[in-house]
Amino acid sequence: MKNLKSISIAIILVMISFVSFAGKTSKIMIKTSGQCGMCKTKIESSVKALNGTSSAYYNEANSKVLVKYDAAKTNPDAIRQAISKAGYDADNVMAVKAAHDALPKCCQKGQVCTDGK
Ligand SMILES: [Cu+2]
Q1: What is the pLDDT of residue 26?
Q2: Which in 14, 27, 90, 97 has the greatest CB count within 10 A?
Q3: Residue 1: inside a domain, yes or no?
């Protein structure tokens, strides 16, 4: 009987940790290589398309994107990978080259964007 009690306590503890983990929104700020309004649209939509993210806000002034996500469904690395696959650097994750090369010329690294504003 004592055993049964400790097992049910363990089960309850596990359930509590699941409940507190799920539905908890985490935030992360990721530095990208984006530079204009077109980049903003691409980066935000690539992040939002990822399962587990609830919002993405790209700031053109500093090229950073603020992402809100459910830590039970995704993680910062998966978010950086999504940005990389869209053609942009994301913190220490380099852009996927083919995706980067397919971007409009002005959105590529080292170029200066004058449109999109
Ligand atoms: Cu751009």
Answers
A1: 96
A2: 90
A3: no
Count the alpha carbons within 13 Å of 77 in the hemisphere toward its beta carbon: 0
Segment 67-114, tens digit of pLDDT = 999 999 999 999 999 999 999 999 999 999 999 999 999 899 988 766
- CA of 53 from ligand 1 middle (Å) equals 22
CATH number of the domain to which 36 belongs:
3.30.70.100
Q: To which H or E segment does residue 79 belong?
A: helix 76-85
Can you give the pLDDT at residue 5? 79
Q: How far is the CA of 25 from the centre of ligand 1 (A)?
A: 29
Residue 87: domain span: 24-107
Number of domains in the chain: 1
